[in-house]
């Protein structure tokens, strides 16, 4: 990641909202940021060339909130690049991305900033979360992330790969210096999984046992889209191509271990965690599924006309199902 231009005084916290066509929920997210009891923050909204009322909502908020900046991409650069752009345009010591459809409790920043201030070895902090539906009704508590605060990187790495039930690195507060030492979001579906693993290798991760975050579950949310169908969102216009999602995830975990500075003996302990991850994810089955999909994609690429017909039929079926 690259650092933004220097400024006379950077805020303590930088908040990024990467958004594309988020008119339904965006105002709620913005209002929850404006209501924070911790006030030393800046907000950068990166609009990925939205075609709905997102731009109007953002510009109106930025006009009334001096800590907010609005950036609009001339074209859709993909969700992962847009996440990274939020960080590149930010100046704070700590950094958090807020999804356009989620909300923060007013004390969220106050509590998470206190945790990072208290322990320089902590790289990432999140809180317990309520899950809410499309209308904002509370569905229940999200599963707790039992992060490890062990001193050894291999123990924290094992924890996020084999114990923690969900990938939440896209939601919490992290040290900007640690985030910039990583590749950020790789242009690939579910790259937040790779980021979470590397954050664990680089520092402790902590969950505040207070319910200060509201995660919205609705049909358009990204985590409901199958991994093999997320490429268009991650890399618009890429079209049909051969890919191996599970192979890539396994490989990126290994690359993170090799990339992070640590003694060779600790790297070997981290790599030894991967067989446990293989077993947990049933990767033998998932890898064979990757291969079948790759062969199918190769056949469609070899016959472009047939591929276009199949894609058109898929789009038609999806449209009919959504009516």
What does the secondary structure layout of this molecule look like, with pairings?
Layout: E1 13-19, H1 26-34, E2 41-47, H2 54-64, E3 68-72, H3 79-88, E4 94-97, E5 103-104, H4 108-118, E6 122-132, E7 138-141, H5 153-162, E8 173-175, H6 176-181, H7 191-202, E9 204-216, H8 231-234, H9 245-259, H10 264-271, H11 274-281, H12 283-302, H13 304-321
Parallel strand pairs: 1-2, 1-4, 2-3, 6-9
Antiparallel strand pairs: 4-8, 5-9, 6-7, 6-8
Report the β-strand fraction as a percent range.
Answer: 15-25%
Low-confidence stretches: none
Q: What radius of gyration results from the CA coordinates?
A: 20 Å
Largest sheet: 9 strands, mixed
The gist of it:
The protein has 323 residues and is an alpha/beta fold.
Task: Characterise this structure.
There is one protein chain. The protein has a domain at 13-221: Alpha-Beta Complex (Spore Coat Polysaccharide Biosynthesis Protein SpsA, Chain A), CATH 3.90.550. The radius of gyration is 20 Å and the shape is globular. Helices cover 44% and strands 17% of the residues. By secondary structure, the chain is α/β, with parallel strands linked by helices. It starts with 12 loop residues before the first strand and ends with a helix. The chain contains 13 helices and 9 strands. Strands 1, 2, 3, 4, 5, 6, 7, 8 and 9 form a 9-stranded mixed sheet that branches. The chain has helices spanning 26-34, 54-64, 79-88, 108-118, 153-162, 176-181, 191-202, 231-234, 245-259, 264-271, 274-281, 283-302, 304-321; strands at residues 13-19, 41-47, 68-72, 94-97, 103-104, 122-132, 138-141, 173-175, 204-216.
């Amino acid at each position: 990641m690259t650092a933004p231009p220097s400024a006379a005084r950077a805020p303590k916290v930088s908040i990024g909202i990467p958004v594309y066509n988020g008119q339904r929920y965006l105002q709620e997210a913005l209002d929850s940021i404006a209501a924070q009891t911790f006030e030393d923050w800046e907000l950068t909204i990166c609009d990925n060339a939205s075609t709905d009322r997102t731009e109007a909502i953002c510009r109106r908020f930025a006009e009334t909130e001096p800590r907010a900046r609005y950036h609009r991409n001339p074209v859709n650069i993909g969700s992962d690049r847009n996440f990274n752009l939020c960080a590149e345009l930010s100046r704070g010591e700590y950094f958090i991305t807020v999804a356009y459809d989620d909300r923060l409790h007013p004390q969220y920043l106050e509590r998470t900033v206190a945790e990072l201030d208290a322990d320089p070895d902590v790289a990432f902090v999140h809180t317990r979360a309520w899950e809410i539906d499309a209308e904002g009704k509370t569905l229940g508590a999200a599963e707790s992330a039992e992060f490890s605060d062990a001193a050894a990187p291999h123990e924290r790495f094992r924890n996020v790969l084999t114990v923690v039930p969900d990938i939440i690195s896209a939601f919490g507060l992290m040290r900007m210096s640690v985030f910039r030492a990583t590749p950020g979001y790789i242009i690939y579906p579910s790259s937040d999984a790779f980021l979470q693993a590397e954050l664990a290798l680089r520092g402790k991760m902590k969950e505040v046992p207070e319910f200060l975050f509201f995660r919205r579950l609705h049909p358009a949310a990204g985590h409901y889209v199958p991994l093999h169908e997320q490429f268009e969102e991650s890399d618009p216009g890429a079209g049909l191509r051969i890919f191996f999602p599970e192979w890539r995830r396994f490989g990126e975990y290994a690359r993170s271990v090799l990339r992070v500075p640590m003694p060779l003996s600790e790297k070997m302990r981290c790599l030894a965690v991967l067989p446990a991850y293989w077993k947990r994810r049933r990767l033998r089955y998932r890898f064979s599924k990757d291969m079948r999909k790759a062969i199918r994609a190769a056949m469609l690429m070899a016959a472009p006309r047939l591929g276009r017909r199949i894609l058109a039929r898929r789009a038609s079926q999806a449209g009919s199902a959504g009516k």
